[in-house]
Design goal:
The protein has 227 residues and is an alpha+beta fold. It has helices at 60-74, 82-101, 134-141, 168-173, 207-218, and strands spanning 10-16, 41-49, 52-56, 104-110, 113-114, 117-118, 122-128, 146-152, 156-165, 179-187, 194-201, 222-226. Helix content is 27%, strand content 34%.
Length: 227
């Protein structure tokens, strides 16, 4: 699998594998602090492009504050679009709440642009309370999309699946394209738990290039012990 490194402008984040709380690294690029907890626990680190905005999903007040900060940033200097601003906030809160329902701990939203064109994408990181077995995972997932066993440079073994889906949002907007979804299932060290990375983009015409970016981000995943 060819992996293209993310942009040199990047934000580093470390998240607890046991807790949904984590530092707001997107607002503070370069931070690498995990959550503090009693004893030692596994935390993961991930490098994302700088223009990916990070929304912690728990607790609720932190999620809402992060979305409000994002809307404020996106509408900076624009005071004559209150309806559009409210709509953007509602959509972002809806996306964040949907992530919570899927067991998500953090959501990243891409605001990258190329030649003035937004490169829309998202990354939802979730925790699955189940034992990881590569062969069983591949077998269970193979009926939907292209599934394979892979090895991430620092995080080790994982299962990767690429598939397409026509989302409710795409149908609502009348889009003719399907979303491209790339998922990684990674076992949490010393726990019967799986970390799931779900990348998604509606940009079907450049889906292969976006998938390479997703693979590059996933390749930066690493584990460390946090006291």
């Amino acid at each position: 699998m060819q992996q293209t490194p993310p942009s040199s402008r990047s934000a580093v984040s470390a998240e607890s594998a046991e807790s949904a709380e984590s530092p707001d690294s997107a607002e503070n690029p370069g931070s690498d602090d995990g959550d503090e907890a009693a004893g030692s626990e596994n935390v993961f680190g991930l490098i994302t492009p700088e223009d990916w905005y990070r929304v912690p999903l728990q607790p609720e007040d932190r999620r809402e504050a992060s979305v409000s900060a994002l809307v404020k940033r996106q509408f900076a200097g624009v005071d004559d679009q209150p309806a559009l601003r409210r709509q953007a906030q509602e959509q972002l809160l809806g996306a964040a709440e949907a992530g919570v329902e899927q067991g998500g701990v953090v959501l990243y939203l891409s605001f990258l642009e190329a030649a003035g064109i937004p490169l829309s994408a998202s990354l939802l990181i979730s925790r699955l309370q189940r034992r990881f077995d590569a062969l069983d995972t591949v077998s269970a997932l193979s009926d939907k999309g292209e599934t394979s066993q892979v090895r991430l440079p620092a995080a080790g073994r994982a299962v990767r699946r690429r598939r397409t889906e026509r989302t409710r949002e795409a149908r609502r907007l009348g889009s003719e394209f399907e979303d491209t979804v790339v998922e990684y299932f990674v076992p949490v060290p010393d726990r019967d738990e799986v970390l799931m990375l779900t990348f998604s983009t509606p940009l079907e015409p450049i889906a292969d290039a976006m998938a390479e970016l997703f693979d590059a981000v996933a390749s930066t995943l690493r584990w460390q012990k946090k006291a």
